[in-house]
Give the backbone structure.
Amino acid sequence: MAPNQKLYQRIADSIAAEIASGAYEPGARLPAERDLAEQFEVSRPTIREAMIALEIRGLVGAKKGSGIYVSTTPPETALIAPELDVGAFELIEARILFESEAAALAAAAIDEPQLAELRALLGEMKQERDTDAAFDADKRFHIAIAAATGNSLIISVIEMLWAVREQSPLCVHMFARARRKGVTPRANEHELIVDALAQHDPQRARDAMRAHLRRVTDDLLDATKLELMEKAEADFAEQLRRVSARKAV
């Protein structure tokens, strides 16, 4: 494993090496996500990130209703691993750890002007819904909670996590998929966080933030699964079109 290599990258590289060695031949079906998770002793979200990384390389693709298959004609550069950096699931895992505790700390320290700012941002999320403005309000909401802790290091860490979300190619790729599937900031969950902060209840704020970010993980799992399924359906439809065209000749 290369220095600082991410877990999903190690798994993607391992599977890519098996493909290159012939362990998985062109057109062969890869083991199920659950089986790969057991084989590599990692979570299924980590396997999902590895599969998406392999898909981006052009090494694998989905087939309708049957799973992930090795590409029959991978591009010449497919075995060159791009530096995709942090995946969305890894990022959210870190956000759950830091932002949940930041919310608990903020609950003890937050004042009325800071609560008013959060309510204004919540209003923007509700009004703008799936626009860029709504996603920007989501980011500012979470950073405002960090600011309410009054701890400059906590603020820096959470700002850094959001910077990773915007700069890591794999993260950007996965969140863009989710947005295309209609995933938008969950205003109702943000409202529960504000209510807990307004009550100055650290445990309730911690739980509300944790529950919100876990649902973000669920949204990403659904969105990436749907993306693969729809790609497979599109490929299947194209195959049907070609067969029909041949029959007409």
